[in-house]
Structures are given as structure tokens and as C-alpha cells.
Amino acid sequence: MQNYLEFNFKISPLQPWNEILMAELIEIGFDSFTEEIDGILGYIQKELFNVEELKALPLFENENVNIKYTFQEMPNINWNEEWEKNFEPINIDDKVLIRAEFHETVPGMHEIVIQPKMSFGTGHHPTTHLMIQQMMDINFNGKKVLDMGCGTSVLAIYAKQNGAGDTKAVDIDEWSVENSKENAARNKVKLDIEQGTAASLGKKSYDIILANINRNILISDIPTYVSVLNDGGKLLLSGLCFFDVDDILEVCKENSLTLKKQLQREEWISLLLEK
Question: 213-252 burial, b for 16+ CB within 10 Å, e for fewer?
């Protein structure tokens, strides 16, 4: 097991700064969060933590919010047990339910069943909601799909459940790959799951690319996505805060992508683009 640091961030005022802080923390290696009444608890592997990166976060210089924090080391946490205590089902427009096996089924809803592990944190709920919300209006029938930064592979699973053809799921983290394999089997779908990054994609092309990651990785990887996206193909992005949109759209324009639909939930944004 990895040794983790737990950071207790006190945030005043809480909204909208808690979500913005989580977005900034994700970019420096934090991978999971628990929301508190007066702030958030953030977790990062001890070996990945760099105090100078934390101190340099833009939000600490923002005069509109006050953030204080303490931290402690938390060795050998049973993360599966922690996620089971904190994980709640995600209801998307009363049409799609993402739940764990220990949650009750809801008649009449399309269900995706996952085992909540570290690849699925509470801070990701709005972006997962946005991605699925966008995906409900996309025709996946027979399409070749790529899910980048797949985490639990919930997006790839949903695409496959809706008729997608060959579907590949890629994540840089080994635990996400293993969790994805478990979840694919749990939902009785066939996925091509591998550990890697955009640099390891090769020359295979796709009709639809899903990328729920974060601003910096997306800006870096969009040219690669476009290079493996078929003409007329769709690129669906999230993991973005509202203040990231202009930078992302500039890169998209440079790569001949046209914005088709933008959705917002709380401070989070999703963008549907077409090549």
C-alpha cells in the first residue's frame, strides 16, 4: 500500500472556491477528496508531494478567498473501505445511475455498476455527470471509441452499453487499469484496456474520443487526439473549470476542432467538439 498525506483545507468562503481548489490540487498530484462543512480533505501519495508546488497554487494568491491547511501522514489506509464509506450513487437526469454493488437498483434507469476505488473520487462527480449528460445525445452505434484517463472506465462502459464498436480505455495508473478490467467484467462489456498515455496511442483511429482529465494534460494531448480522430469525429472533454475554457478552445481552434456543445455544472465544464 502507498503511504498518503491527508491535507485538511479550511476555505472561507466555501463556494465556489472548494471546487476550484480541488481542480488546482489535481494538477499537482492530489487524487482524491472528501468534502467537509468548512473545506475539503485532500489526499496525495507521499512520494508525489512537493511543498513548493502547493505553495505556488494560484488560489493561495487570490484575495477573494482565505485558505488554511494542516496535514498528517496516513500510512496503510484501506482505500477500498474508505471509498465504500464515502461513495454515493450518481443520478444523471433520472436516466442514468452510476452505483456500486452495495447500492439498491433503481427501476427504469440505465445502470452502470462500479466498485469504487481510488480511481473515483467525490471531486469527479460533476465532470462524470457532464460527460454522461453529453454522451446521452451521441450516437455510439458501431463507433470506434477511445476513453483517455479512463479511471473506472465508466465512460467506456456506458459507450459500449450504447452500441459502441471497438472501445479502448487508457490510463496512466496501474490501479485504474485493474479497476477498469473488474468493472468491464462487472457490466458484461468487452473493452481493450491498457496502461499508457496519449504518447502510446499508436496509429489506430477513432470516431469518438472521451477525455475527462484536467486542463494541463488536455492542452498537451489535444493535438495527439486530433491525429487519431477520424474526419467528422467527436472529441468530448471535461475535467475543466470555467476559467479553463478560453485556453482549451484556443488549442482546439488551432487543431481544426469546432465547438458543438458546452455544458456547465457548478464550476465544471464539458465541451463537445467535432473534427
Answer: bbbebbeebbebbbebbeeebbbbbbbbbeebbeebeebb
